[in-house]
Amino acid sequence: MEQKSHRRTRVGRVIADNTPKTVKVQIEGIVQHPQYKKYIKRHTRFLVHDPEEQCRLGDLVRIEECRPYSKLKKWIVREIIQRADAKTKENLQEATHDSAGINP
Questions:
Q1: What is the pLDDT of residue 86?
Q2: How far is CA 82 from the centre of its chain?
Q3: Residue in 104, 92, 98, 94 with CA at minimum distance from that of residue 24
Q4: Domains and CATH numbers, the chain
């Protein structure tokens, strides 16, 4: 019989994979403003432990809360739901270059 984990899980997209055994995952959600009732897009970024280094830029992954691996890494990659296609990777790379002020 399989035991069910009581740890929190989230689904997000890998936005950075340049550090060894670590990826940065962004979770997006929509919340309603309490006063104005307008829907606002919010995002949260997590540093996630990737022991096999199998995640690539743009992948859709499921992460699970775990013991702290470092000061900021408290999540681990459980599965890769969908691999990123070339268009998604290109868009993410352009976004990181734009935010860093790099002109290719």
A1: 79
A2: 13
A3: 92
A4: 9-82 (2.40.50.140)
